[in-house]
Specification:
The complex is a heterotrimer of chains A (232), B (395) and C (298). Chain A is an alpha/beta fold and 232 residues long. Helices cover 34% and strands 29% of the residues of chain A. Chain A has a six-stranded mixed sheet with strand order 6-7-8-3-9-10, with helices on both faces. Chain A has a four-stranded antiparallel sheet with strand order 2-1-4-5, covered by helices on one side. The longest helix of chain A has 16 residues. Chain B has 395 residues and is an alpha+beta fold. In chain B, strand 2 and strand 3 form a beta hairpin. The radius of gyration of chain B is 31 Å and the shape is elongated. Chain C is elongated and about 100 Å long. In chain C, 20% of the residues are buried. In chain C, strands 1-3-4-2-5 form a five-stranded mixed sheet. Chain C contains nine helices and five strands; from the N terminus they run ββαβββαααααααα. In chain C, helix 5 runs parallel beside helix 8 and helix 7 packs antiparallel against helix 8. The chains are: A alpha/beta (232), B alpha+beta (395), C alpha+beta (298). The interface between B and C is large, with 53 and 43 residues.
Chain lengths: 232, 395, 298
């Protein structure tokens, strides 16, 4: 694997049972992502793009094939090992934000850093920086329910960046946002990418896909098109 | 952060958490009471028996001290034998009976202890002094109150009556020389004590050279068990009872309360356990999404387990601490009920608080809290991340 | 007076005093209680020697008497005797008086009166006539002797009250959780236009069902527990007494209390739900507290 390649998936497959039926969600996908890239995975509902993202992020285990991030095979890792790997190398952003409702914005951002055993002073400092970076410096002591959808997603991005991951995986990050807030989110993700984080995003949102440097089209569990958007 | 998250999660549903804490507090109070009950009466009885340092008691063969009206015959012989034993320090014979006292035209009947005032172990003189002459007595507060007599007063007492002659038998004129606290007597009981020889005389032939009980103190450093064995072989016609034997007998008679304490304690623990398990399980079910996201962002399973167990232990411990005061208050109330058992020494208690009891209850509840958190935490930590997120999204 | 009699059975297996010479006169009969018979393996027709002093059995000139066991007596279901483990022997009055050297004396008389009303005047006459005698109504003596039982009953009642409080909190908590679990369904129903009253009614019916089914299961468990308790303590104390009874009154109390508590808990929990706006129920925002510092514009 070349030094520039940060993530490589080879012949990735994922099958699962839904009742009696065997579903082939991902059927032999091979994909390489270079450092600093911004990849949008698009396709119709049920094409396997979210499953693909889960496999790439190590939160689901493939039925076959390999996933390598920064030279580490994550598909065969034990659960604890994969969890530690995610903590330090991958940031996640979800469609429904999934912030801890009991914690304030800053505490949500601190959570992965606390798990990584960063000392309290450093993590508060970094959490403040990150919240300022996503434009929420003034709302750090609010709980998720006191924030709008867009603000919650910004907090989620700040949380994802907490441990300085090399890759940010986002599953429909604009899916629950209105057009205006969605546009702000697209701009923020572009900024994050410009600042050096590799991003892989799964989306239906054409504007979001349009903002990516590379677009991967999936259908029925396979990649049907993979092209760069040179204009970006 | 772990504590912060556990605390924040519990604070999210305040009314629910408060109710659970309240439920645990009641269970904890009950548990504490039952722990106190299971050991309290033993401790109290032991303390009572050892109040004056007598470790051994002799009773008529086949009986326990003052359990029947039977008496030990030829007691002076037995006393000689006992006093001759090198490891016996003090021997105190006691005869039980009743005295009928005529006061202002009415007759008051009092439980009476005939004992040697110099070595007796039945009472402590509160005011005045112990009897020094055959015609002197000490009396309980209740006797003095009911009779209207005072220290220094003289009274006429009899140990029995003769229906044929329609007169009192064994009549004596006695002087009250002291007010005493009787260690083994029930609350409110009218009690007096006269010298042993006086009571034997007053009771006539049936009490001649007899005693209901002999209390024995072993010399310092002597083995009580070996003294007991020596007495048993020297005096086979009496029952020699050590504190341990007496405790066993009491255990046997009051086994109902110990078993009740065990059952109710177990039920309290089970109720607290079920309450917390239910609450934490529902709480985990409500935040499956949050839990799998924590896993997704890199929080290890052990940490999830720890956080959920911490929630359950927190409810238990806070509930237990709240229950401590409640438990002590209810124990006091329950003790006042059981202490009214007829004939029970006023100094005997069923619920005796010792810090060890509180630690035991707290330890049991903490253990139950950990167990209560295990199922929901295992469930939360073992959720498949991708599948759960898909299901949560559908929900 | 309860004399402690010593019973030496003429059975070699017990290893007590064995009298090989036949009694010189026709022995009298005694009745012993079932415990004594069981523990000493005495049978009807066995000879035993009774004495009031240990070691006196069989000695010439000592106060002892050889008798025949003619009956076994069942223990009464008397709460005041429940914890007493001593053996009982029933014998003729003169026989006991001789044996224990009691002379022409008794501890008490039982006096029958033709009517209940006559009891009071009989007591008055006895108390007036016989110096040193004290007459009591049987009922008053029964009250005195069952004081132990009364204390235990009071203790049980107090424990019962504490248990009811704990159960009430438990039930309230469970109902609150159950209703809370349904908040999304309730929100959906309210968004569909179902009235708060109907929702409360529905929740209360569910609460009543839970409480009803729970109390039926509870009564069944209670009945089983009562059987086990009775079996255990009858064995421990060797008494026919019933220690735990599941009476219709207790069942009625338990079921009605459980239903009432269930309904109250259901009502309180449902009230809480219908007072919260449906959208807030869906998003869960009602549980959030105020921000710690003034909110900036979103």
């Amino acid at each position: 694997m070349s030094d520039a390649i940060v993530l490589a998936a080879s012949d990735l497959r994922r099958e699962y049972h839904m009742g009696e039926e065997l579903v082939h969600a991902v059927r032999g996908v091979t994909l390489e992502v270079t450092r600093g890239d911004y990849v949008a995975i698009v396709g119709p509902s049920g094409c396997g793009k979210s499953t693909m993202l889960n496999l790439l992020g190590g939160i689901d285990r493939p039925s076959g094939g390999t996933v390598t991030i920064n030279g580490s095979r994550i598909d065969g890792m034990r659960d604890a090992e994969a969890t530690r790997f995610r903590l330090h190398n991958i940031g996640f952003v979800f469609q429904r934000f999934y912030l801890m409702p009991a914690l304030t914005a800053i505490e949500n951002v601190e959570l992965p850093m606390a798990e990584a055993k960063m000392n309290a002073e450093d993590r508060v400092h970094r959490a403040r920086e990150l919240l300022a970076y996503v434009g929420l410096g003034a709302r750090r002591d609010h709980r998720p329910a006191q924030l709008s959808g867009g603000e919650q997603q910004r907090v989620a991005i700040a949380r994802a960046l907490a441990n300085r991951p090399q890759i940010l995986l986002a599953d429909e990050p604009t899916g629950e946002l209105d057009a205006k807030t969605g546009a702000d989110m697209i701009a923020l993700l572009a900024q994050v990418n410009r600042d050096g984080t590799t991003i892989i995003v799964v989306t239906h949102d054409e504007d979001l896909a349009g903002a990516a440097k590379r677009v991967v089209h999936m259908r029925d569990g396979v990649v049907v098109d993979d092209h760069r958007q040179d204009s970006r | 952060m772990l504590f912060r998250l556990a605390w924040a999660t519990l604070s999210r549903h305040r009314s629910r958490t408060l109710l659970a804490v309240l439920g645990v507090a009641v269970s904890a109070a009950m548990l504490l009471d039952m722990v106190m009950l299971s050991s309290g009466m033993r401790a109290s009885f032991r303390e009572l028996l050892l109040t004056r340092g007598f470790q051994l008691r002799l009773a008529p063969k086949g009986t326990l001290p003052f359990d029947t009206d039977a008496t030990i015959p030829k007691v002076s012989e037995a006393l000689r034998t006992l006093r001759a034993m090198p490891d016996v320090a003090t021997v105190s014979p006691v005869l039980g009976g009743q005295l009928h006292v005529e006061v202002a035209g009415r007759v008051i009947t009092a439980a009476t202890i005939g004992a040697d005032p110099l070595v007796q172990g039945d009472y402590e003189v509160v005011t005045g002094r112990a009897p020094a002459a055959p015609n002197e007595l000490v009396a309980s507060d209740d006797f003095l109150r009911v009779s209207g007599l005072h220290v220094g007063d003289t009274l006429s007492a009899a140990a029995g009556y003769d229906p044929q002659l329609r007169s009192f038998a064994g009549r004596r004129t006695l002087t009250v020389v002291g007010r005493a606290h009787f260690l083994y007597m029930a609350a409110g009981q009218l009690v007096v004590s006269v010298p042993l020889a006086t009571l034997q005389d007053m009771q006539g032939s049936r009490a001649r050279d007899r005693a209901s009980l002999v209390m024995i103190k072993a010399r310092d450093g002597a083995s009580v068990e070996s003294v007991l064995q020596r007495i048993k072989s020297a005096l086979p016609s009496v029952s020699a009872v050590s504190i341990e034997t007496a405790m066993l007998q009491v255990d046997k008679r009051l086994s109902y309360f110990r078993q009740l304490a065990f059952i109710l304690g177990a039920v309290s623990l089970a109720v607290g356990f079920l309450l917390v398990t239910t609450l934490v399980t529902v709480s985990v079910n409500e935040r499956l999404g949050e839990i799998v996201v924590m896993r997704a962002i890199g929080v290890v399973r052990g940490r999830i387990v720890l956080q959920i167990v911490l929630e359950s232990v927190a409810i238990m411990v806070v509930g237990a601490l709240c229950g401590l005061g409640l438990g002590l208050a209810t124990a006091r109330y329950l003790d006042s009920i059981l202490s009214s058992f007829p004939g029970l020494p006023a100094a005997m208690h069923f619920f005796v608080f010792e810090p060890r009891d509180a630690w035991t209850a707290l330890g049991l509840l903490t253990g139950a809290g950990i167990l209560a958190g295990i199922y929901p935490s295992w469930r939360g930590a073992s959720l498949p991340i991708a599948v759960t997120m898909r299901e949560e999204a559908v929900a | 007076m309860i004399p402690a009699l010593l019973v030496a059975a003429l059975i070699p297996s017990i290893g007590q005093t064995i009298d090989s010479t036949p009694p010189h006169r026709s022995p009298r009969t005694v009745a012993i209680d079932e415990r004594l018979a069981a523990d000493t393996r005495l049978r009807l027709g066995d000879y035993v020697i009774l004495s009031s002093a240990p070691g006196a059995a069989g000695l010439v000139g000592a106060a002892s008497d050889t008798v025949i066991v003619s009956a076994f007596v069942k223990r009464r279901a008397d709460p005041s005797e429940v914890a007493r483990a001593e053996y009982r022997v029933r014998m003729h009055l003169d026989q006991l008086q001789t044996l224990i050297g009691y002379g022409d004396r008794v501890d008490r008389f039982a006096v029958g009166t033709p009517t209940l009303a006559a009891a009071d005047s009989a007591i008055r006459q006895i108390n007036a006539a016989a110096f040193g005698f004290q007459g009591f109504r049987s009922r008053d003596i029964a009250v005195q002797t069952s004081r132990t039982f009364a204390v235990v009953s009071r203790f049980h009642r107090a424990i019962g009250v504490i248990t009811i409080v704990a159960s009430a909190i438990f039930l309230l908590c469970i109902m609150l959780l159950k209703v809370d679990e349904r908040r999304r369904d309730v929100a959906a129903l309210r968004l569909l236009g179902i009235s708060s009253r109907s929702i409360i009614r529905g929740v209360m019916v569910e609460a009543a069902l839970v409480a009803g089914v729970g109390s039926v299961v509870g009564v069944a468990l209670g009945w089983i527990a009562a059987q086990i308790i009775n079996w255990h303590y009858r064995g421990v104390y060797r008494t026919p007494l019933a220690f735990a009874l599941v009476t219709p009154g207790i069942v009625l109390l338990a079921v009605s209390l459980s239903l009432a508590l269930g309904l109250i808990a259901g009502f309180l929990a449902a009230q809480r739900l219908v007072r919260t706006p449906p959208l807030a129920l869906l998003t869960g925002r009602r549980e959030q507290s105020a921000p710690r510092e003034p909110a900036a514009t979103a």
